[in-house]
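G., the chain you wanted modeled:
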Amino acid sequence: MVKALLLLIILSLFLVSGCSTDTGNVIETTKLAIPETPSEQNQAQSPESIEELHREFAEFEESQAENLSAEQDEIQEVTETTEEIENATEETTPEEEAITQNEPVPECPSCEDNNPCTTDSCSEDTEYECVHEAVIPCCGNSECEEDENWSACPEDCECSLECGPCETLEDESCSCLPKTECVQDGCCPGNCTYLEDSDCPRPSLVFSEIYYNPSGSDSGHEWIEIYNNGAVPIDVSKLRFEESGTQHMLKNTSGNMLSRNSYSIIADNPEQFLLDYPDYSGLLFDSSFSLSNTGEELILRAGKDGDILDAISYNSTWGGDGTGFSIEKIDLNGPNTQENWNQSSAEKGTPGQKNSIAA
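Predicted structure as tokens:
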């Protein structure tokens, strides 16, 4: 009981002080009345009074804790606000600083230098000065750089490719393409002939052997041999054969192209010709004609209205008149005169082979 009383007196003395100081603020406290008379002290020593004091003391502590927490929150808020203001002041942009100091706001000038080979920029990071960064490689700087070529950058790189006379330069790819147009341009494309393109070499075909008067019936047994003494193959099917002014077409039976230094036969009856000459394996053309036994003019043309490739006016006095022998040209590159033609030394002639009397 005495201990409780002493505790109560000490607590009362602490509370009677009336105030306490915390963080510079005066906090008023609730004053507790302490009985001064002995009768009042005796009454305070009762259990009910002690419990009441304990309860009031607990309520006082709780009130003090709440006030302290509120003050701490207020102090924290003021501190945070102060820090935000300080940070904002530190992060002031040059524009804001200029405005604050009443100075002109910094701006970027126009940095375009009209150079396609530079990247132009200006910003706060460059201290508002223009920066021109080179673009490499760059098409348009008059330099053909390592990763550039004529196709991708013709402004800087030249196409040094040289094409032949029968080729054309492809601008897009800087490559040579073969010409295919049959026009007078100094070139004869592979798909053109003398008939379509005057640049193509003129065919060089000659009459080389004539079997105009076989022994017995002439019908179905007559034939004419032609020889290609030129430098290029010739499509014989495009030629025309004329006798005494009458023009005949040539129909192929075993192919069209007559190779250089080769022979071909024009027969009035190809089936009968192969019976007469079963070993023949060259080009064979069918045509409708009947050769004169006394002689006539024969013409070979490059097409219906084409140039004359060869012409001969043979005569029965040259030999081969019903004897079973042909007449042959001695020098295939010589003229079609009687001195250069004579009767074959082989019976029925030498179709598709070298002439028996050739020089």
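The chain has five helices and 19 strands.

Shout if anything looks off.
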